Amino acid sequence: RRLLLLGEGNFSFAAALCGAPGTQVVATCYESEEEAAGRGGAARSIRRLRDSGAEVVFSVDCTRLREHFLPGEREFDRVYFNFPHCGRKAGVVKNRQLLARFFQSCAEVLAQEGEVHVALCSGQGGTPADQPRREWHNSWQVVAVAAAAGFVLSHVHPFEAETVQGYKCTGYRSQDKSFCLEGALNHVFTRSSAPLCFTPMSCQTQLGSQKVSFQVPQVLVDKINRGFLEENSSHPVRTIKEKLSAGLSQAFPLQSISSCLPLLQQGHPDGVCHSNIFWITLSSGEAPSTEKTSQGVANPVLFSPSGQDTDGNIQEGCPIPQQFYLRPSLLPHARAIIKERAFSPGTLQVLSGPVFRKCRISPHSTPVFHEMLVVLAVSRGTEDSCIQVLVDSIRTTLSSLHQGIKSSISLQEAASFGTELNDFAAFERQLGEIQHFLCVGTDPEPSGSCVGVIRTAADELKSSELVVVSASLNLDLLAMLLCGISDWRMLWTSDRRFLRQFPEGELRLFKSFSLYPPSYVHDVSFWVPDGEEFDEVAFHTLARRVSGETVVSIQLRDNFLQPGTGRRSLCYRVTFQSCDRALGCREAAEMQLHFREEIQHHLGVTLR
Description:
21 strands, Alpha-Beta Plaits, six-stranded mixed β-sheet, seven-stranded mixed β-sheet
């Protein structure tokens, strides 16, 4: 490994690292060799470094690193910058600017999988790891300035100077004096994954007996056809689905529906509000008119290429009967199986796949999630006992998975997990009451925020002898609860560090690779068109699309009715925060400006 050390005072830290097998140390400082050698112990450390084969470079500006190293010498695996400071009595603003320029420069010399280690005195970083924690404006805001250069904070731990043999801190107010290291922290930064490019995307699916293509709503471009449930996937949603299937097979004969279920449905969606539907326009010339679809609908279809916008909304003046939409549930597919009698009574039929619903923004409200639907036809009069067996089987499997994850965590690991372990403990408390997970006889929330729903339907079969029992499970929320994932967006990240934590489908407690991500708050206020009901779901969907799912919260701050005119004004607070990649304040501000333009264009509001 190639190690670059910046801002060395007396070179004692660099000297402690040199000589390790397989490492090449490049130690630098800002001062000239004559100035640096004058510090106590510096000459001895420099001599030791050179004797061990390390490179010592003087007069290195940490904000212009590429100028000091040739192109072939810029791939450092680790960069250390211990206790950076502008010198003398420089305040927080100047030191914040120093860090910002350092991170920008560091991005040019760091290997793709490299790490940046920044040690700061107590309180300087401004993260929750600092105890006591300074007010935000009085800190160096290290995570935010790093984010602007494309870095995320992946680890933070105490800077234990006593474990570094021979290390002595120096440089207090640019003098050869030590400073207090009590409460000092080492911050480890890594490169963020690149922002996704949401280019228009078309998708093919089966509709009846023909294949059709359609344009995917822009907010779903990075979520369509991800293959999380495919056989070669190690994603936790697939692991949970397989474990649940295995558990259910202990209580019932089980048959998995392996055929590819169509993404599109036709007709009037049952049990889901029209504003929560992603309406779809088929590509020109491909809309079938009277052909039966997989759900047996044979009504004529009105085809309007201009009737749907990029978010899957029906535009004003376009009739809803164009009737194609992304499936909000797998239940219609199950009904088709029931109607065709393509099942054996007493055998559990298992269907699974992603389903799509527009919803308001929150950490547990998912516009797309993986549904596992199990359907069982039982003799009339036995449905209550079958439901109990079904519930007990699901509960037993979840308890087993939970205990397996819990037992795999050592005491040392538990101390490093922090908030993730607290979420996990909350799950353990919730597991005692099955109603937290399975709502019997009710419809699921539009956002998919209910983990499971059990239904009975006596009229599905039109039989006096059989009753249909179905259970719908939200695999995404189960994965979040079991693995301690606090934000649904992490399940859909493109960062490879997520799946690395679940090798070969093993369920583990998730440890975030982006700690304490910075958030940016913006307000937007506008007049609502006269006489119209404001579509808040469409407002939230626009925010999702414009921000690339980096809006984490939208709160109504004010609802004002102007006296005399009756005009209504709304004010919302929009909070930008990414859970998996670097998001800088400038990028968030640009998103906010774009969001203002889009709501004016698509929702017809008048900005204030």
